[in-house]
Amino acid sequence: MSKPEAKDLSHLLSEEAKSRKNSPLKAAFKYYKQPGMTFLGGGLPLSDYFPFNKVTADIPSAPFPNGIGATISDEDKSVIEVYKKAEMNKAEDKQVELSRSLQYGHTEGHTEIIDFLKEHTEQIHNVPYKDWDLIASVGNTQSWDATLRSFVTRGDSILVEEYSFSSALETAHAQGVNTIPVPMDAKGILPESLEKQLDQWVGPKPKLLYTICTGQNPTGSCISAERRKAIYELACKHDFIIIEDEPYYFLQMEEYTTDEKKRENNKVNSHDEFVKALVPSYISLDVEGRVIRLDSFSKVLAPGLRFGWIVGQAKLLERFVRIHEVSIQCPSGFTQSLTNALLQKWGHKGYLDWLIGLRAEYTHKRDVAIDAVNKYFPKEVVTFVPPVAGMFFTTTIDASKHPKFKTEFNEDPLQVENAIYEQALKQGCLMIPGSWFKTQGESNPPQPELPENPENKNTFFFRGTYAAVPLDQLVIGLEKFGKAVKIEYGL
Predict the structure, then answer these.
(1) Is 312 in the same domain as 342?
(2) Residues 289 and 9 sit within 8 Å (Cβ to Cβ)
(3) Are residues 168 and 304 in the same domain?
(4) Tell me, what's the pLDDT at 92?
(5) Which of 218, 215, 286, 277 is nearest to 247 (CA)?
(6) How far apart are CA 299 and CA 297, in angstroms?
């Protein structure tokens, strides 16, 4: 059965996005290097003057028999070489030569790496409508900034998870956008609460829902397939776009268990098992073209690559390209050449092998972290839900059980939170208070308030990560934090 076309959602574009015109200079680039054409129309420096003839990198060889974190030996390495000009290297296919990657142009990204990512997206997500597209970005932070400029205007309101990445919130605030919190629990957004919000909404409804839906930052939550389907149906009913910010999507892992035999048996061992184990993305449910997916290599290859990509319906992404032409121009040429060379060397099978290796590594890191929390944190006042994706875990602490809660702290959980933060610093461990990630926006006019969850009234949480330090330091750090909590509570 053929796929349908996306629904026309151009009415949701911002005035800025609607007003952007195609650049005639950029349009003229289609004639660049056309046979028989003398191109005198652009300020392009001659590539002969680029002082880089070849870039070489040693990379691990797929399928990574010694694991993805092992030191690369001469036997286990591959060498990728990118030359200034294609004719200098006849051995490698589908390379982005330096004379192209270091030149102006190709705002959408170079064809070779974009084609690889489109094949990857089709393999993993199988976007269910036919006129979808994919363009390059310089990572999800920039993608989010461009998304806001494409859809909202100063004074508009958008929906955001009750706790969200503080930099993403600040990006919205700096543009004068109101971020309205959507209630969530340990498993992510509550569809029933979102439905009540939208049914009771006063004034123009929000155009966007921003969600970090897998391995959520900061809570570590992962929204189930059932909840995603319910939230997508609300997007169709109330005519808004879902922005799925998914840098942690491939850092999904097995359920936490203390049983060593189960830990060993639960591992995925094949490409099919790996893909089937992934929670369905919003873009894989999208039949109307109302999902914009922000993807990135930051958490699976390296943050400093500054390369990401945006997936969505072609008509909407064309407006992103107009923004990029006059802002980022394009991602780094070195990044595109080297990352493309790595992906072409590995192929889709090798890249999946790498991702499977990451899954195993992060599952082990998560297990070590939660084992330490179990061992060192006082269960009298601390609860937690082991994450099943991402880099973060949270520990929820009951403020009402603090001996000074009703006296010195005036029944204010934030004062208890700060006391533990300060005590943990004294003990030599830094974890981040959950209040730093609280979504505080208010719409104009104000919306009806949803009933407060009494279970959360006197609790707060801290965000930790198992990604940033070696495992021995991770355990030592959690022991220090557990000690800080015990000191504060007199345990």
Answers:
(1) yes
(2) yes
(3) yes
(4) 64
(5) 215
(6) 6
Whether 6 maps to a domain, the answer reads: no
Same domain as 386, residue 353 = no
| Domain total in the chain | 2
Tell me the average pLDDT across 395-424. 95
C-alpha radius of gyration, the chain, whole number: 24
The torsion of the CA quartet 437, 439, 440, 441, rounded to 10 degrees, works out to 140
Together in a domain, 383 and 345? no
pLDDT (tens digit, 9 = 90+) per residue, 309-330?
A: 999 999 999 999 999 999 999 9
Residue of 36 and 41 predicted with greater confidence: 36
Domain boundary among 292, 323, 358: 358
Looking at residue 413, which CATH number applies to its domain? 3.90.1150.10
Contact 465, 362 (CB under 8 A): no
Q: What are phi and psi of 382, to 5 degrees?
A: -115, 135
382's enclosing H/E stretch is strand 382-383
**What's the domain range around 198?**
12-34+44-358
50 found inside a domain: yes
Q: What is the pLDDT of residues 338-372, one digit of tens each?
A: 999 999 999 999 999 999 999 999 999 999 999 99
Confidence of residue 22 (pLDDT cuts 50, 70, 90): confident
Residue (of 465, 218, 260, 249) closest to 365 by Cα position: 465
User: What per-residue confidence (pLDDT) applies to 295?
Assistant: 98
Segment 284-316, tens digit of pLDDT: 999 999 999 999 999 999 999 999 999 999 999
Tokens coding 84:
């200034």
Instruction: Identify the CATH number of the domain in which residue 140 sits.
Output: 3.40.640.10
Give per-residue pLDDT as tens, 140-171. Answer: 999 999 999 999 999 999 999 999 999 999 99
Q: Is residue 418 part of a domain?
A: yes
Say if residue 85 is in the same domain as residue 190: yes
Unique residue bearing structure tokens 């003057």: 49
> What is the distance between the alpha carbons of residues 360 and 363, in angstroms, rounded to a whole number?
5
Would 159 be classed as within a structural domain?
A: yes
